[in-house]
Q: What sequence folds into this?
């Protein structure tokens, strides 16, 4: 259910031509517009793309 809701928010943000529809939709999904959750997840994803075995990326996300 949550995945469909998030996808609907992404689609809505794209229709509204928001600058970063995925980030905007995630902020709406979490109900927190400051973007802190998205920034933490994005930073961890970037680190894991560079080094998939980097456990520190996941630990940093929860700090």
A:
């Amino acid at each position: 259910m949550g995945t469909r809701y998030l996808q609907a928010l992404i689609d809505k943000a794209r229709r509204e031509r928001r600058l970063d529809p995925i980030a905007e939709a995630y902020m709406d999904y979490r109900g927190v517009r400051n973007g802190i959750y998205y920034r933490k997840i994005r930073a961890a994803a970037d680190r894991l793309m560079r080094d998939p075995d980097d456990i520190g990326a996941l630990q940093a996300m929860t700090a």
Q: What stands out?
A: The chain has one domain: 2-61.
